[in-house]
């Protein structure tokens, strides 16, 4: 199998694997580059799994760069290029419904990936349990505040993901479920356009001015928005920092947890979902019916349950498990803090 890679306009990446005559084509369309996970984990994981399962398949990878119109163009393009299965992580979950209808009208299968497509059922949905993620990070924060004897009625901020992302809505539902059942109140809530960390940072800065020391914790829906919140807190001179949640276990977030600046994240190696998507893609290519473990939005689905990571278990969950190495994470200013946690 040979691989070539080019970087086209609007940071769209296209990769083709294999070029055998008559090879079946599978497209992998991701939503944005605000998170580094797609280039660092999702696509490499999918590419590797497909390489093992279908050596003669042609793969196309493109990133929509948070642009609905661009992703629509990419979707139409891969169909024109002969894609028989499209793995789609939509920029806009509502807009993706029309894409599914277009694909089905041309006998093309669609696997919803990470973010569901509520309005028109895809052929399959593969993801982590997003509502469970929201509940887990918020409940972990609640239990931490209680362990620290933060009084009932204290306030927290809630930073959600993109309002156009159905997965963000599920994460928000999980956060709401945990906070609503807790003794703490939500001071203010924000839906972060495009999951952009600078927008989360800007909003948090305004809330620090508004609420000051009344902010006892921040539930952020992913590591990018959590990192934005932490940057705002540091810029405001907040000391000590209130606990801030995250999700994705990015290297930057792991470093913040090790340093004591971020409270938790979610370990959900994207390669797990990417490999599952590859298996489903090959089954669909072969005319088989993939086995679902549940149904979401009338779509047969496979949802994985992730683990919450804090300083207490980061060594076991991340480093001992081989998800990241100390060489990658414990660099420069984080080396001493890693050593204190036994991460070497």
TrEMBL record:
The keyword Signal applies. Keywords: Signal. It comes from the Bacteria. Its main location: periplasm. Residues 26-288 form the Periplasmic binding protein domain. Residues 1-23 form the signal peptide. It is found in: Periplasm. Belongs to the bacterial solute-binding protein 2 family. This is Sugar ABC transporter substrate-binding protein. The lineage of its organism: Bacteria, Pseudomonadati, Pseudomonadota, Alphaproteobacteria, Rhodobacterales.
